[in-house]
Amino acid sequence: MKTKRVILLGATGSIGTSTLDVLSSFPEKFRIVGLSAHTNSDKLLQIARNHPGARTALTGILAEQREGIDFYGSTAAVQLIESLDADIVVNGIMGSAGLAPSAAAIEAGMHLALANKETIVMAGEILLPEARKKGVNVLPVDSEHAAVFQLLKSRPHSEISGIILTASGGAFRNTPLQELAGVSVQEALNHPTWNMGIKITIDSASMANKGLEVIEAERFFDMETDKVSVLIHPQSYVHSLVRTCDGILYAQVSAPDMKNPIINALSYPETLVSDFAPLDLAGKNLEFYEPDYRRYPMLKLAFEASRKSAAYPTAYNAANEIAVEGFIRERIRYLQIAEVVEAVLQHDWSDAPRDLQNVFEVDLRVRAVTEQLLDAQGV
């Protein structure tokens, strides 16, 4: 395999940190040519010093200009991509801000290792056909979708009758239901398995994150919504399962370590010899149980948004982003996140986005509606 030129977006976050660890293990296979961060300029410049010649971008709107940073502002990641020749872009940007860079990578003909699920939730029906037309591989980095991708590699779509995504259950999987109304932001950040950013950890607690993954799986793997399901699996060893038309389940099993899906995406279509957190199943207990919608109303809302399709998945995502920010800033309580999102989804979002500009317009409208609801429901 020739040396691949890599652009790493979100280099200072959890996906970025894991990607840097992976790349350092294969210096002859990969070379970083571009790096982005949101506001952490110190860490970005520190990383860049270890990768001479790499161009840099700082995407925060109020980012301070510093020597060694090439691009600034909300379009900086897109400018970075457009300025470089690269083989693959790792998109570890959080939230809807990752959509435009994903589109830019596809437009430039660069393969895309995608940890930004909002790209597919908001615009998968637009971008995936465009990627196929350009011969661009869009490779999932989320552990669940990466697992499904591996399980489906040797099987025709016609043989698959269902996909099962697993979930840890988040910080509140054992919290008595009557106590959820009073939980704090700090309690929501106490994830039992993964070390992630603030927003995604809260999404894990509410299972909004898994809801987005349901929508992503439906679009990524061309499955009907009702053929995608979720099981709580506290140990987080089984990342996903597929059921074939003969009723047999096949599972992808590995340690809960993001380095595994990252190296699989970066090296595709090859498989590199690696030894990232090998799992020994001896003595391990594996549990699975159905999620309770009383505990996880955001998951139920995601299935409803996925079934309605059109702009409802975009509305679900944008409303959740605003509501979670409201919870973090103590404008609303934890259980009000789902109440706000449900109220937003009661609006009419039945006009399917025609292009990316239309997606962004819908996203802005949803955010305005959600802010109004937040003001009405505030603590």
From TrEMBL:
- The enzyme's E.C. designation: 1.1.1.267
GO MF entries: 1-deoxy-D-xylulose-5-phosphate reductoisomerase activity; isomerase activity; manganese ion binding; NADPH binding
Q: What's this protein's family per the entry?
A: Belongs to the DXR family.
Its UniProt pathway annotation is: Isoprenoid biosynthesis; isopentenyl diphosphate biosynthesis via DXP pathway; isopentenyl diphosphate from 1-deoxy-D-xylulose 5-phosphate: step 1/6
Keywords, in A-Z order: Isomerase, Isoprene biosynthesis, Magnesium, Manganese, Metal-binding, NADP, Oxidoreductase
What processes does the entry annotate via GO biological process terms?
isopentenyl diphosphate biosynthetic process, methylerythritol 4-phosphate pathway involved in terpenoid biosynthetic process
Q: Which catalytic reaction applies to this protein? A: 2-C-methyl-D-erythritol 4-phosphate + NADP(+) = 1-deoxy-D-xylulose 5-phosphate + NADPH + H(+)
- Required cofactor names: Mg(2+); Mn(2+)
Q: What class of enzyme is it?
A: oxidoreductase
- Chain positions recorded as NADPH binding sites: T12, G13, S14, I15, N40, N116, E118, G197
Looking at the record, the residues that make up the 1-deoxy-D-xylulose 5-phosphate reductoisomerase N-terminal domain are 6-124
List residues of the 1-deoxy-D-xylulose 5-phosphate reductoisomerase C-terminal domain: 138-221
Q: Which gene encodes it?
A: dxr
In terms of InterPro entries, this protein maps to: DXP_reductoisomerase (IPR003821), DXP_reductoisomerase_C (IPR013644), DXP_reductoisomerase_N (IPR013512), DXPR_C (IPR026877), DXPR_C_sf (IPR036169), NAD(P)-bd_dom_sf (IPR036291)
UniProt-recorded name of the protein: 1-deoxy-D-xylulose 5-phosphate reductoisomerase
Binding positions (1-deoxy-D-xylulose 5-phosphate): K117, S143, E144, S168, H191, S204, N209, K210, E213
Its organism's taxonomic lineage begins at:
Bacteria, Pseudomonadati, Spirochaetota, Spirochaetia, Spirochaetales
Q: Which HAMAP family match?
A: DXP_reductoisom
